[in-house]
Design goal:
The protein has 465 residues and is mainly alpha-helical. It has one domain. It is built from 21 helices and four strands. Helix 3 crosses helix 18 and helix 9 packs antiparallel against helix 18. Belongs to the nucleobase:cation symporter-2 (NCS2) (TC 2.A.40) family. Azg-like subfamily.
Length: 465
């Protein structure tokens, strides 16, 4: 009882009208709903690392995925520990969906920036976050960015994730007739067929509010894939990884790699990447905190979260530690709302989530056995969930509809979160002026739009690559 009393006093159970049992149940619930990231994050980031010949010649894809799984767990634990012990809030953190896709597919594979340099950008972003949070400046930065863009980012990332997931599941494929993409031959593709069945099974679980629906969907689909393989219907390498390797817990190739990434950087491109990581993480985290806090009843009468700088510090520390270890930006997860709905109100809930992440180190070798298409089902489910952000946009206002609409549409069509954000930021002051509301545009917003115009002119003219 002494330990229980100590925890109750430290986390202020009485003040938050909760108890140890409620907090533990809430923590386990949150972990189960967000634990899919342990499987999905390595799947998304691994191709970016394997594009480096030094990594590809020394390690298999399975080994890289296991390294990334370990890093994902450790980075999540670091951020969650700050959330639990410093902020005393019931929120879980992990490398963010969308941010990891931007890291791998836009920055590394798209722009051709070395993964070490991308990690350096995330590290710099984390340091900036820590400094801004420490002086209480993060809440002021939000005032510079147009509201339509802020509210549209989540939905844009959602479509981006959904589109990428469908491609990896072979449901959407390149169109040789010239319309770029089309529906794949699902009936003739074992991967696409099983992926579609697994996806709808996951949808059913999610619709019925089954705890851990996404994780259960991934594991069930992987189990069927292995069952069909062992039964002799398909050879290894069709539905399942062709080979499996021993446990890989050595993360030394990733840890500290950001230091190398700081050498010989292109200042313009590097600054843009840092800015984009900063922007997306800033508003993704702020939006999640406000949304989940509303469910928990944490907001004051003005709709603000008291002491918001404390939970913001958690993602800043998590991002910095994660980049140092070798993963993309760490952010607060919206899945934290499931634990809040179970009654979690204090940092004890977060502490349970963190300890569960730490315990999951024991199953890291199983990550390599999950077929990639099964992991990518999570992107489709999460992408659809994120579409709810479109309801926050005033579609009757041309400024909102154009800036918000461009932000949402340009992201998947260019496979770049950054391009979507830029489209919204550039269009906002122009449309505001066109409708006679130029006085509502801040000088900083005009400046930001001008910077993007110059950058994209230089980029698309071939002056930089």
């Amino acid at each position: 009882m002494a330990l229980a009393d100590t925890l109750a006093d430290f986390f202020e159970f009485e003040a938050h009208d909760t108890d140890l049992r409620t907090e533990v149940v809430a923590g386990v619930t949150t972990f189960l709903t967000m634990s899919y990231i342990i499987v999905v994050n390595p799947t998304i980031l691994a191709p970016a690392l394997m594009a480096d010949p030094t990594i590809a010649n020394a390690y298999s894809m399975a080994q890289v995925q296991q390294m990334l799984a370990v890093v994902t767990i450790l980075a999540s634990f670091a951020g969650i520990l700050v959330m639990a012990l410093y902020a005393n809030r019931p929120f879980g953190l992990a490398p963010g969906m969308g941010l990891n896709v931007f890291f791998a597919f836009t920055v590394v594979l798209g722009l051709g920036i070395p993964w070490q340099t991308a990690l350096a950008a995330v590290f710099v972003e984390g340091i900036i976050f820590i400094l801004l949070t420490a002086v209480g400046a993060r809440r002021y930065i939000i005032e510079l960015f147009p509201e339509p863009v802020k509210f549209a980012v989540g939905a844009g990332i959602g479509i981006f994730l959904l589109f990428l997931g469908l491609q990896q599941m072979q449901v959407v494929v390149p169109d040789p007739e010239g319309t770029f993409v089309t529906l794949g031959e699902i009936a003739n593709s074992p991967v696409a067929s099983l992926a579609v069945v697994g996806l709808f099974f996951t949808f059913v679980l999610y619709a019925r509010d089954v705890t851990g629906a996404i994780l259960l969907g991934i594991l069930s689909t992987a189990g069927v894939a292995w069952g069909l393989t062992f039964a002799g219907f398909y050879d290894r390498g069709v539905l399942t990884p062709e080979t499996l390797t021993g446990a890989q817990y050595d993360i030394s190739p990733l840890a500290g790699a950001f230091v190398e990434g700081l050498r010989d950087i292109d200042p313009v491109t590097f600054t843009f990447v840092v800015f984009t990581f900063f922007f997306v993480d800033f508003f993704d985290t702020a939006g999640t905190l406000i949304g989940v806090s509303q469910i928990a009843g944490f907001l004051d009468e003005d709709g603000d979260l008291p002491d918001i700088d404390k939970p913001l510090m958690a993602d800043a520390v998590g991002t910095t530690v994660g980049a140092a270890l070798g993963t993309s930006t760490v952010t607060t997860f919206v899945e934290s709302s499931t634990g809040v709905e179970e009654g979690g109100r204090t940092g004890m809930t977060a502490l349970v989530v963190g300890l569960a992440f730490l315990a999951s180190l024991a199953v890291v070798p199983l990550v390599a056995a999950i077929p990639q298409f099964a992991s990518y089902m999570a992107l489709v489910v999460v992408g659809i969930i994120m579409l709810q952000g479109v309801t926050d946009i005033d579609w009757q206002d041309p400024t909102w509809s154009i800036a918000g609409g461009l932000t949402i549409v340009v992201m998947p069509l260019t496979t770049s979160i950054a391009d979507g954000i830029a489209a919204g930021i550039v269009s906002y002051p122009v449309i505001k002026a066109a409708v006679g509301e130029a006085g509502d545009v801040k000088p900083g917003q005009w400046l930001l739009a001008a910077v993007f115009v110059v950058y994209y002119y230089i980029q698309t003219s071939g002056m930089i690559v």
